[in-house]
């Protein structure tokens, strides 16, 4: 029966081409607008490290006080003094500090001019904490951190640029005039949004980074942050050492805490640390600390551009209007055939059969709308660069799941829209129709 | 013509009426807010930065390789002489009108923000402001309009490490800053204190306007800016260059070879190293423009779909009521009466939809305010929206209504 109803549906669609075209266009536009904006939204709002996002936390300590802080919230990074204090106590199983750096490198080959390379100064725990995959070699260990070793981990992309992708472990790289020994080359790794380094530097959706070097080594070489440096109040420093001791925040800390008990313990440790600072006279205010995990941190930092959410909402509203429109048109279309329904009912068709027939007819409309929507979506996805910066626009792409979703949403939405018109059609009284004929 | 029979007839088509009204209500809610967003974005995009002939400007950002540290005196002097050499080289280029060291530019989305107070060691600064640092040529290169006082002279210009927080001696502020701090209009010669410091800074000039370098989301910080006569030395440098009229591309092309010839030990990024201000502006406003375009497209499609929906449903009603129309015509109704009937019917339905739509529109606006820091929508947008949907309804109903008015009276005598 399904095949027969499908054929009936298709035949009926051909009967009023204008009405059919209108419905198909409405569904097509509605579903395409929703899918285009959804493809961007799902890319920017995703979980960058799903299996560990609940174990990774970034501690915040209010070193600015109620007069200067961010409306009651502590600063979004740590100053040098607090960062080093947290690192020294080693309260978490794994922990790292990090900040973005930009160093020049001579790539070799036919290019004689130096290029800028972007990287992060991190501790050895960074690699296991964030599950960085390795192609060759590995990260460095705590002894290397303490030894302030001149070692470096390259990304697969940067290794391709410098060494044509060969195993470069043990080779030397010169960054900003200083030599480093390569100890590892990561596989392709670029969590987006780049949750661990949101305090300036490369944006949350940028290309993979180039290298990682020990935090301790970067300090020794006095490499400045390429990210944000945010200070408050009366500033008196004139050189690097005074700056390090100042309230300027620029270091992002991360800790790994595996259980709720560990999280609670770390939180009370942070409170105790801030209380100590208050007793010592460094802070003139009560402890004000935060411990946010990855998703809470992304939410707090507003990583999803508000354009993306607004666009998605507007598109969904648009889709809703298209569906209301479709309900009206389907109603008109179905009731126009009241005679035909009356005859079928008089010949013994049950209400259920009428109901099924018209739902299937609606599904064919949905399918046609979905196919058209797919076409619009493909066009629109290539045009999202109009609305979003290139690094975000690149994230939106038409993949198999989006194709499937477009078709399924179009068909389901149309069938849902057809419930009422089909019910009305099934309610047609056969006697009435036959009489008026 | 009385409304009574129309309402009686509408009772027979409850579903269709509800659907059209609902569609009009939703359309109204979305287009009011969309047009409001479009208006806001366009207003933001078209506001002037305060720089004259800004399309001739471009920005050079370059980084020294193995630069000496600006923290020790020898390194500082070395960095400064390197920067001075670059400036001289750029100023000598044939297509360059002028050049100045600069910390940032309006809309660059990277800059320095500090506080300005009126008393020494003030606990909380009076206002937040953008800090711009440049030399005696900065004002003329940027093309700022001086409305009071004087520009900086070469003797005013200090050079310091970028990290040095010692307060500059002199400042030029924008008119909004002057008006806020010195409402009597006598800012020139007055003393201000930067970042709660105890050291005074004297205001020597006031410029009409200079937009913020950072994204201020429309706050007062957008127009609070101050320019200091300081050439900052660090391991990187930024220079704003004004090309001679019409020579922008030639000037931008000449930069890299000229600078590399002076000193090859530097990085000028392939994409971000030399950027025209037009490009910086386009980047800063991409989202705003994109949003305006998206909203316009959505509005257009929405209006067409709603119109098409009205046409479709009204045509169906006309078809259904052929007989009644014929009877009415046979009983003496004129064509124009039939036409008016359908027009009035549509006006009624659209009116109901519009009333619901006004509520929805205001609700949506309030929701956007709480979730996306949007502004309150002025009532005029809702009124214009109401007129638009009513007009749309009338336009859409015209074709089927005319078809209805053309139904001949003889239909009444035929069986359907």
Describe what this molecule looks like in 3D.
With 437 residues, chain A is an alpha+beta fold. Chain A has two domains: 2-45 and 305-436, no CATH class; 56-300, no CATH class. Chain A has helices at 2-15, 17-44, 65-68, 80-89, 126-129, 142-146, 156-163, 215-220, 240-245, 260-280, 294-300, 306-335, 338-346, 351-381, 390-393, 400-426, 430-436, and strands spanning 56-61, 78-79, 94-105, 115-122, 134-137, 151-154, 172-175, 178-186, 211-214, 249-256, 289-293. In chain A, strands 1, 2, 3, 4, 5, 6, 7, 8, 9, 10 and 11 form an eleven-stranded mixed β-sheet that branches. In chain A, strand 7 (172-175) and strand 8 form a beta hairpin. In chain A, helix 1 (2-15) crosses helix 14 (351-381) and helix 2 packs across helix 16. Chain B is an alpha+beta fold and 416 residues long. Chain B has two domains: 4-45 and 285-413, no CATH class; 67-264, no CATH class. Chain B contains ten helices and 13 strands. A six-stranded mixed beta barrel of chain B has the order 3-4-10-7-9-8. In chain B, strands 1, 2, 11, 12 and 13 form a five-stranded antiparallel β-sheet that branches. Chain B starts with a helix and ends in an 11-residue tail after the last helix. The chains are: A alpha+beta (437), B alpha+beta (416). At the A-B interface, helix 2 and helix 12 of A face helix 2, strand 12, helix 7 and helix 9 of B.
What ranges of chain A have pLDDT less than 50 throughout 5 or more consecutive residues?
none
How large a portion of the residues of chain B is in β-strands, by DSSP E?
Answer: 15-25%
Which parts of chain B are unreliable, with pLDDT below 50 for 5 consecutive residues or more? none
Give the helix proportion of chain B (percent range). Answer: 40-55%
Largest sheet of chain A: 11 strands, mixed
- Which structural class do you get from the secondary structure elements of chain B? alpha+beta
Strand content of chain A: 15-25%
